[in-house]
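Priority: low. Protein: Fic family protein. Input follows.
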Amino acid sequence: MTRQFRAGRYVKQPNHYSAFMPEPLPPIPPINIDAAMQTVLSKADRALGRLDGSIQTLPDPDMFVFMYVRKEAVLSSQIEGTQSSLNDLLEAEAAIQDANRPSDVSEVLNYVGAMNHGLKRLPELPISVRLIREIHEKLMQGVRGDHANPGELRRSQNWIGPGGSTLNDAIFVPPPPHEVERLLSDLEKFVHEENDIPALIKIGLLHAHFETIHPFLDGNGRVGRLLIAFYLCEQKILIKPVLYLSHWFKQHRTRYYELLQNIRDRGDWEEWIKFFLEGVASVSLEATETARNIVALREEHRRIITDHFGRSAGNGLRILESLYTHPFIDNRAVMERLNLSFPAAADLIDRFVEADLLTEITGQARYRVYQYFPYVRLFSDVGRESR
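Result:
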């Protein structure tokens, strides 16, 4: 097999267009792990190991996961054209009314739900066609693309190209629909078969191959990116789902799509894998730094509360801990969580505001809502977060 057809070839269909028919994984000839690739693989492995270790030092790893999942949901959805920011998502989850919020925030909320559903299912249902379909159903239910049969493999031909393009002038035409189920079944076997392919390279192969199959009418990119996190958790490479590559893919969006297409057109798996590993290293280092910043922030704010809140310090520390998973709060929430009267809750919130730990975001005289902005800011590099 020549390198050009290493990933597959275009096959003429009865309706006179050509669709891509991928070869099964792993590629033949095998991935060439030359000195350059070995270097970036080692770098990625080390960075991922540091990230896993740093998460274990957090007082509560889940407080990191909570925000990181949401950052990934925003970025992965933005790659597909949504406008919602991290702030939009957090406000929607907190049921804060905002007439200016983009309507597509529901898509980002669905992404969070799909991620959490998949992580919950992994212990009982490993990565499989069934899990992929469940994830897609959660992702696409009731939002843009709902017409695309959530959870159902496509039964018609799709294609990738600029607006107005057709099957005959598309940039890429995935396999015909009658081949999709078989191709996904083969991919499932590859995921679970024992071989000597390094885990991170295997994940890179898995993601690219899934995007080539393009098994759904919509949502393929988001499902494919979710599979990366699921595989890392299933293989226990990470104790928590904290590696999300959408930041890297969004930063290098044009390159991302070019390299995927080069696999199909020229069989160039190696350049894609190097790019993928560079992303793993870069995002791992960023996430490790964020984890360190969370620990430092928490300790600083605990000290401020202990030193300046007087007899309210105990309640202040309890509220602080809750802000790491619910970074928006109002007077009623403080009353309920601490069983306080309205004046006592209002006084405690005032102390947080005076210490610059909370910021009022509604501008209203009544029914005010406050954000734990110093914490949200650690994750807010995805546009429009600070208002």
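Residues 269-308 form the longest helix (40 residues). The beta strands are 8-12, 18-22, 328-330, 359-360, 369-371.
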